[in-house]
From TrEMBL:
<dbReference type="Pfam" id="PF18859">
    <property type="entry name" value="acVLRF1"/>
</dbReference>
<protein>
    <recommendedName>
        <fullName>Actinobacteria/chloroflexi VLRF1 release factor domain-containing protein</fullName>
    </recommendedName>
</protein>
<dbReference type="InterPro" id="IPR040783">
    <property type="entry name" value="VLRF1"/>
</dbReference>
<feature type="domain" description="Actinobacteria/chloroflexi VLRF1 release factor">
    <location>
        <begin position="75"/>
        <end position="192"/>
    </location>
</feature>
<dbReference type="InterPro" id="IPR042226">
    <property type="entry name" value="eFR1_2_sf"/>
</dbReference>
Amino acid sequence: MFTAYVDAERSLPGPVQNAFGDRASLVASAAPCLAVTDDTGLLSACLSVPAPPSPFAEWGDAVRLDRSWFEPTGEHVVALVRSDLFALGEYDGREQTAFHGFDSELKSQHSKGGFSQSRFERLRDQQIDSHLDRCRAAIEAVSPDRLYVVGEGSVIHEFEDLAAATKPVDATGEPDEALDDAVRSLWTVRLRVP
């Protein structure tokens, strides 16, 4: 059995290309993922990994899986960041031990009179930047050892320097409800067949 964790930041390693052959490009499009195949080509799968390991590629007697890649273990923090909402949960395994959340008033509509669309967009961008600064301060105040940042794809990249992993999720509602939804999405594993 061949198992590899393929990072999206790098080109597809040679051993992965060799193991998957004609299907290697499908693995590349599924990355980041845990890619699994056998030497006969009968089995072929790519799994999303919520808490990814460092990239590796290896042949073995069995598929290499670690439970901690797929479910919450130990103490960790999940931060939901959207341009208008922030929610942070501290967890021990699956149990939430603390919660902090807030939302920000964002100008959502441009009034037709008074000022230009470009001024409206500039003010909105400033509001979002200010909100993201508050989010970063809230995360840093908790000082997590293991942080997962989920939320709006256009803003979560701002937290890659702090996070073990980031993942865009569609979570709406009040901060506590949105965080619950985001945590479910974070730990959901998606299967793709190359």
